[in-house]
């Protein structure tokens, strides 16, 4: 089989046919997704997939399928979002590093590499689920779905203070909570502290019904949602009651020193410079801090400077502080989210929103 240009199609051989159904997806929807993103054709034949298309796109498709296959071999599931992530990773990583056996369709079976050579290549295979980026929690294993996410995870593992910056849907808060949960489970820290400013989009707590805790709770809900996605609900409540997990508004951080903790400040663009300085100086011994926010979505009253923008200007030159900037290309929610973010960027305005 050849492409329209006369070039032989790439063919990948998979050795475990039990994994082909989840690899291809229901009604081959995962293959269709790759075809749609890369503008080529994927033709499954037994335990093989023929890739017909432009050479570079075919190489990207091959790398993505290899990564997804290795993900399944490692016991992880494959979703449409994982397919998008594998393609996104393959588009920017060196394709010559891939190691699964593949060949032009017109190559004789007897001309394939010897078994020892194929095994050697497999040992150097890259995967999106490599151990250095894999995040283990009680309910799931989490892997980055874009190169920027991989860099973000690496920064949080190795730096005491990390800023995650960019639009909604890029996984800034979710990955930060995942790292915090994994560190707690590994006993690398004794507790998790999750905080965010409690006044957004012009709303004032005093006009909301209920006691202070009831007023604050809706603002903390996204952080609880992330926790419940990674830990059983009863474990979250038990660790919260034991003081191992704390979710609180930023005002509760004043006057404290937080040691042996992983501390996350979410929606940091809605802090004032005084609040941001107060938060950053809470760091105690053996603590990690992650600050997430979108500088383009400031909900503070007109004329009030953003503490996040202020901190970026002051701390930007400090080498030990890592700043990871996401863009619309890193959005891992519904594909329309990235399109919407780009549209607003081109229009020169971005409405208030949540990550």
Task: Walk me through the structure.
The protein is an alpha/beta fold and 355 residues long. 39% of the residues lie in helices and 15% in strands. The strands form 3 sheets. Strands 9-8-10-11-7-12 form a 6-stranded parallel beta sheet. Strands 2-3-1-4 form a 4-stranded antiparallel beta sheet, covered by helices on one side. The protein has a two-stranded antiparallel ribbon with strand order 5-6. A hairpin with a 2-residue loop joins strand 2 and strand 3. Helix 6 packs across helix 7 and helix 10 (273-280) packs across helix 11 (307-315). The longest helix is centred in the N-terminal third of the chain and has 19 residues, at 55-73. The protein is globular. It starts with 9 loop residues before the first strand and ends in an 8-residue tail after the last helix. Residues 95-129 have low confidence and may be disordered.
The tally of beta strands, per DSSP, is 12
Cα shape: globular
How many helices? 12
Measure the end-to-end span. Answer: 46 Å
Q: Residue ranges: pLDDT <50 for 5 or more in a row?
A: 95-129
Structural class determined from secondary elements: alpha/beta
> What is the element string, with H for helices and E for strands?
EHHEEHHEHEEHEHEHHEEHEHEH
Question: Strand arrangement, largest sheet?
Answer: 9-8-10-11-7-12
């Amino acid at each position: 089989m050849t492409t329209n240009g006369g070039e032989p199609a790439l063919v990948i051989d998979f050795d475990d046919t039990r994994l082909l159904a989840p690899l291809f997806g229901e009604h081959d929807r995962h293959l269709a997704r790759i075809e749609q993103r890369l503008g080529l054709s994927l033709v499954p034949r037994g335990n093989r997939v023929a890739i017909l298309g432009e050479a570079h796109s075919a190489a990207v498709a091959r790398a993505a399928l290899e990564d997804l296959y290795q993900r399944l071999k490692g016991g992880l599931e494959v979703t449409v979002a994982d397919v998008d992530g594998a393609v996104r990773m393959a588009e920017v990583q060196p394709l010559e590093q891939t190691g699964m056996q593949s060949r032009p369709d017109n190559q004789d079976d007897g001309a394939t590499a010897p078994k020892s050579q194929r095994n050697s290549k497999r040992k150097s295979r890259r995967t999106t689920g490599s151990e250095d980026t894999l995040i283990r929690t009680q309910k799931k294993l989490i892997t980055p779905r874009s190169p920027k996410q991989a860099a973000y995870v690496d920064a949080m593992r190795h730096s005491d203070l990390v800023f995650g910056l960019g639009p909604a849907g890029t996984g800034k808060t979710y990955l930060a909570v995942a790292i915090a949960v994994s560190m707690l489970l590994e006993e690398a820290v004794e507790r998790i502290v999750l905080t965010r400013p409690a006044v957004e989009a012009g709303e004032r707590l005093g006009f909301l019904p209920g006691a202070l805790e009831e007023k604050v709770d809706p603002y903390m809900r996204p952080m609880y949602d992330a926790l419940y996605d990674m830990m059983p609900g009863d474990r979250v409540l038990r660790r919260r009651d034991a003081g191992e997990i704390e979710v609180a508004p930023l005002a509760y951080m004043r006057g404290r020193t937080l040691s042996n903790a992983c501390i996350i400040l979410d929606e940091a663009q809605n802090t004032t410079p005084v609040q941001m300085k107060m938060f950053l100086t809470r760091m105690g011994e053996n603590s990690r801090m992650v600050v997430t926010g979108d500088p383009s979505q400031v909900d503070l009253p007109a004329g009030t400077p953003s503490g996040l923008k202020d901190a970026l200007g002051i701390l930007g030159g400090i080498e030990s502080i890592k700043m990871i900037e996401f863009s619309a290309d890193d959005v891992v929610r519904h594909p329309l989210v990235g399109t919407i973010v780009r549209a607003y960027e081109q229009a020169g305005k971005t409405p208030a929103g949540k990550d």
